[in-house]
Amino acid sequence: MPLLGCIADDFTGATDLASTLVAGGMRTQQVIGVPNGTIAPDADAVVVALKSRSNPVDDAVAQSLAALEALRAAGCQRFFFKYCSTFDSTDKGNIGPVAEALMDALGTRFTIACPAFPENGRTVFFGHLFVGDRLLSESGMRHHPVTPMHDPDLVRVLSRQTSRGVGLIDYRSVRAGADAVRSRAAALEAAGTAFAIADATDDADLRTLGTALSDRPLLTGGSGLALGLPAAYRDAGLLANRDDAAALAFPGGIGVVLSGSCSQATNGQVARWLGAGRPAYRLEPQALASGAPVVEEALACFDGASQPVLIYATDTPEGVANAQAQLGQEQSGALVEKALATIAQRLLDKGVRNFVVAGGETSGAVVSALGVSSLRIGAPIDPGVPWTTAPAADGSTVALALKSGNFGAPDFFDKALRIAGVA
Ligand code: ADP
Predict the structure, then answer these.
(1) In CATH, what class is 254-420?
(2) Which residue in 112, 152, 179, 302 has a CA-CA distance of 20 to 30 Å to 204?
């Protein structure tokens, strides 16, 4: 029965948290959307990936509560609300209102909020969030189209999202160790303060927080806050020692790389593949728009194929600008996503079981075309991108490596396929 139930407000954030838990030795399942009978009984942790970061507050709260209910029904005893390490939110929410609703449902009056992710340059000091050596409000986040962050003081930011008190567990308590954190949390709770922003400037701070607060029913934060949880659960006798947390049963057979990302890193990865003379098919938005039999041609590359094929729409910024000027931005993107999703589905029918997918939106389209709603998370291929396995719509097991645009080294495609045993 799973111990830890996590609710993440977006897909890649969910994968990031799941990878952290796997690295800590927890068998972790990621469920896409509110679980619907899809929770595996042999997982130690379940991470529900919602799309609730910038939805209307009521919708985000309703989705989060439905996820909580499913996680509780599956036996989870501890809960984690995961949001972005840049605390992406507005004065309306959704971090404050979702956290309040989860607290009420769990009957707890106190939780902490800690988005720190030092490895990626996100640190919290006296409640102020830094991105690298800049305050959050001076980072690129001030220009975010949906959740621009203009205030680096998270006590103030969260106070605007809740009518409950927001306090601070500053770095002096954190550096003094788990006992000091526990007493500071207890003092804040006794004073009727519902939230504490917690300072953390390195992984040791995050481990201290995790150790100190692992018995709390609800924690909220970035994936870094989960660093110390698996060890704390083991120490408390709640979690077995595992050396197989990242183990996946790969289906083997033929593999495909589907690339709909035009990010710089993906362009490099595609160039590396083409440069090595590997089989590839280029999918052009203009050809798709003209009704050319692009999908059929791409599928034909697999007839008698004995090695993996790259199907790519990846293009340079100039190429993308051209396609967008001719077809419109939305239309060109939608055509490519739909084509890659159809190709994925038809390849599944042809028996292909290994899918390396480049692009965040592209991954969403492919996963949904394959009918995948739940992923078992394996070891990272490159930082931030694990292999996963999942039951597909037809009942078979597929292996999926879902890479958001700028992730992965130039040899990512090859490396991923080699690990899955299909190169
Ligand atoms: P990333 O993670 O790199 O942002 P996404 O898959 O999220 O990648 O987004 C890339 C978008 O660009 C998708 O909507 C995709 O369909 C679109 N796209 C891919 N290739 C082209 C192209 N050649 N011209 C125009 N749009 C494209």
Answers:
(1) alpha beta
(2) 152
Write out the two tokens for 221. 């934060």
Atom of ligand 1 nearest to the CA of 263: 3
β-sheet bridge partners, residue 93: 90
**How confident is the model over 134-183, as pLDDT tens digits?**
999 999 889 888 889 999 999 999 999 999 999 999 999 999 999 999 99
Q: What is the pLDDT of residues 298-339, one digit of tens each?
A: 999 999 888 999 999 999 999 999 999 999 999 999 999 999
Residue 261 and residue 187: Cα distance in Å, rounded?
49
Q: Is the pLDDT of residue 423 over 70?
A: no
- Please state the atom number of ligand 1 nearest to the C-alpha of residue 404: 2
Q: Are residues 47 and 18 in contact, defined by beta-carbon separation less than 8 angstroms? A: yes
Domain ranges of the chain: 4-235, 254-420
Q: Which atom of ligand 1 is nearest to the CA of 362?
A: 6
Tabulate helix, strand, coil % of the chain (nearest 5): 40, 20, 35
Is 33 a pocket residue for ligand 1 (Cβ < 6 Å)?
Answer: no
Which residue's CA is the closest to the ligand 1 atom numbered 16?
A: 333
Under CATH, what is the fold of the domain 4-235? Rossmann fold (3.40.50)
- β-sheet bridge partners, residue 309: 256
* Atom 10 of ligand 1: nearest residue by CA position: 261
Rounded average pLDDT over 104-109: 98
Could you tell me if the CB of 269 is within 6 A of ligand 1?
no
Contact 336 CB / ligand 1 (< 6 Å): yes
